[in-house]
Amino acid sequence: MGLLEYIDKGGIIVYILIFLNIIGFTIIIWKFLTIPRKRAMVQRIRDKVDITNTKNLEIQIEYEVKRLESGLTYIKNIASVAPLLGLLGTVYGVYKSFEIITQKGLGDPTIFSSGISIALITTIAGLIVAIPHHIAYNHFISMLDSIELRAKKELIG
Predict the structure, then answer these.
(1) CA 20 to 30 Å from 109, out of 67, 99, 126, 154?
(2) pLDDT at residue 94 in the model
């Protein structure tokens, strides 16, 4: 069975997960391209604010870090929602299996295997989407924390 057959068999939930994956990876690629360039944030803050005014300096550092954080909420939400969608597909697949058992009995175990395969496919898809988004989110947060600490250390002291 090919990948497209698995996707089709997983149904609407797998298509939703694919859509979320595309959105999430677009943001991840955007962040990988923009955050390293913004490590020059310290110099940019130096240019914008009078270094003798510590309060303005702290506010500017916080503002710049918040700007760098834009988009990360989407990555975090995708990492959180994807396994839940996989679980929803699992519950739906098991429900479908029990519904078929109720209608046709347990005489032939292959009659309810389609529901079980939906359950497994959606669970796998949910985890495949969630894991890299979770890793990327943690990586970016760690990166931004170190940028903020370096800026505060160099500019405020």
Answers:
(1) 126
(2) 92
